[in-house]
Amino acid sequence: MKIVRTIGTMMTAVVALAAAPVAAKEAKRPNFLIIIADDLGYSDIGAFGGEIDTPNLDKLALSGMRMTGFHTAPTCSPTRSMLLSGTDNHRAGLGNMAEVLAPNQKGKPGHEGYLRADIATLAERMSAAGYRTLFSGKWHLGLTDAQDPYARGFQYSFSMRQGGHNHFGLDVATDPAKGSIYALNGKPLDRLPANFYSSDAFAGHMVDQIKSSAKSKKPFFGYLAFTAPHWPLQAPAEDIAKYKGRYDDGFEALRQRRLKRQAELGVMQEATVPHSVRLTNGGWDSLTAPQKTVAARNMEIYAAMVDRMDRNVGRVIDALRESGELDNTVILFMADNGAEALDVETTGAKMLGKWAEQADNSLANRGTGTSYVTYGANWAQAATAPSWLVKGYASEGGTRVVSFLNWPGSKRQGQTSGAFLTVSDVAPTFLELAGIPYAGTRFAGREVREITGKSWAPLLSGKAERIYGPDDEFGTELFGSRALRRGDWKVTDMGDGAWRLFNIARDPGETRDLSLEEPERLKTMTAAWDAYAQRMGVVMPDQAPYRP
To answer: Whole-model pTM?
Structure first.
């Protein structure tokens, strides 16, 4: 499938949109499409170093702007709250995930576990400005009808409200205590189609709505939130078979191949020192033959999920092309956090045990709708290389994610940007490109939280190389793991109370702690984190979920 974009024929007014939002009122306004992959590793897709077959994403990434410095929160729902609010997750209501709120966080402002009512979502703002707003996929920002995307600004919504589900739809329920809630335009469904598979279904709804938008003549904002490749690892048998034997040499070999490929592709500087890994069970060579077979199969299933998701991205791109809107659509692709390292049999046993006990995880059944498996820390660290650690940590491995933006109106097409960027920047960027004002704390007659992210318009227009200056700060916290970025410098606490200091520009792998060499900088930056926490209402948990 070819993806053809006529960059040279993009109308001048649209090109100027980044610098002059007023022009948007006179020119055809661009469409916007966010595509999120759930727990996807930094190097999983081909354009970022991976061996998984992802031709559709690769073409978009390589013809667009690959963002190697894009950062999210350490886990999914906090990231999604920042994406739609344009501000810190502690202000948006997801200071912690609803499922694991610590006792001392319950009832505290900013830790409600759902998107707060005083957030004017990106969808609400774009809807008020005349856009069609479309949602399909994982929501994870509230379980009730009043918290559904249909109630938060999306005019069309097919949502799976929880954070995870059975990819074949075998757990559908109208009671969140009994299974996963699926809702169409805010109304929970009691059944799904017999041939349901998550990536197929979520893309299918978006495809239908893109076609409908073409008929409506209105610009659209679409948010397609895949649940692949989030556990449980499940995929159609024919997709799994495609990867048989590909991972038989183990996770260490995979990591080295991907590091080499990242350097070749320019998404990693050749001088980068990768962080060492925490290998469980002594590494691949310490596993028994049966253990290797099971581990390789888990990775085959994971790859199959990513492969299937990519083909569904292709369906969406085809729909955009057929509607004549591909060249007028700003497409952002991103993962929601670093790769997931939980192992259903060990580190994730407490969280996932009730589902695993009911599953048939025999080798022959792995990957089906009646199995429940994960792929564990060793494969995950191959996916986050060269970064340190994985999902759940404020390290680069937990928060620096695969991402790219493709829009012919950008001067950055075909380039790679290493500028530090954040998920809270997406809302102000899209709003500025659409010519929609967003300053202040009033929206639609109500008080709302202000947008604190930074617009990428200067970067996209070619007028700036970076959005965050040397004195600009960006803080984060989740599960007691915390960090603050200031220019090229970063202080990080992995949840053990020990602050570490890194120069990310020189040491993106966070391999050299400079705390002893730069004590004054460490002191100043940890004080800055304290000030950030005070402003955002961070409540450090008195207990945290176990992380691998």
So the answer is: 0.94
